[in-house]
Fold this sequence. Notes:
By secondary structure, the chain is of the alpha/beta class. The protein has helices at residues 6-11, 20-28, 48-62, 93-107, 122-125, 130-137, 142-146, 149-157, 163-179, 191-203, 240-248, 255-262, 267-279, 284-300, 302-317, 345-350, 357-365; strands at residues 16-18, 34-39, 66-71, 116-120, 183-187, 210-214, 326-336, 339-343, 369-371, 374-375, 380-383, 388-391, 395-403.
Amino acid sequence: MTDPRFTSVLKRGVAEIIVESELRRLLNSGRILNLKQGFDPSAPDIHLGHVVGLRKLRQFQDLGHKVTLVVGDWTARIGDPSGQLATRPMLSPSQIENNAQTYMEQFFKVVDKDKTELRWQSEWFSSFTLGEVINLTSKFTVAQLLAREDFSKRYESGNPISLTELLYPLLQGYDSVAIKADVEFGGIDQKFNCLVGRELQQNIGQPPQQVFLVPLLVGTDGHQKMSKSLKNHIGIAEPPREIYGKVMSIPDSLVVDYFELVTDVPEEEIAEFKGQLKTRSVNPMKLKKRLAHEIVRQFHGKQAADEAGKCFTRVFQKRKMPEEIFECAFAARYIGDELFQLDIAPTLVKEGLVKSISELKRLLAQKAIEIDDNKISSTVVNAHQGSIIKIGKRRFVRIAIREEESTHRSTVS
């Protein structure tokens, strides 16, 4: 009989387990299992979509098992073709290293670092010979690889598929052989890659890994899976108020899914929420506030979650300014009547209030930036000492004038 502690771990937030009966047998064996989590540092930040699987890893760690985190410093150069309709550009080693460092810092906000072993693919692939590559490719046919939905779609539409991309699932699968994985974790879109690892293990005589697949979290747009490229993500390293506000923006239809997949709220409560939403006996905003608080608390603590909630109520429900507003120094030229002319672009980008000049231009085109409640369309503006810039719905900055030396106001003696 399976330990009752496993019931929630194997049922809540699970898309598919291959093979569940075998995984249950392993869990009942009392052996410490080697849980594989691979990641390609093709992007530096983790969002809530990644957290769905990371929370499962942590639950298994809490049951006494070990995670092996495989850094895909070789496969990142190819880029995971899963779900891609076009060939992705290859990354440089320095980009990969920088992305990996940021990723790991965020990874251990969820997963227990003391119960995790870090491995880099270069440990085994840097010494791979041509003979070993040929031997690896002999394990699968082109027809098997083209059976992947993303490959078949691209092939049928005439879009190119590079030979390196065809190698990707084989390389990721070999990672399971190299570390002797017992269980591999991934999103449901990683099923093909994980099964390749299982088959390669069987081919060389290792026990086949079990495959633990989690659902894909839908992003804030309510339609597509959470993704930075789609700009519908909630990053776990974002400021508390930003996370809180983004959670409040999700469609009501996603509230229950988010509670199930990225919080520890008991299932009994979630079932109650589901019933209340169905009968319309609760205002969805009330549940979203609870959800936003739970998520911010996970990554920034209770105090930050409380403050983010108060700020949201003040700014968005009562239409008031936040009590505390970040202040930045802006170089400016005095033009008279206590008015200054300044270019807001350099400071906003430098302070991370916008990610890039291109994002700033996009926000201006969307009329999403205001100064003292007036929408602006240019980065060069007139403002007073202490004027407030509002960026989007949730970012505010107070202007502290740093007057340029050549434009100091003249004084009358």
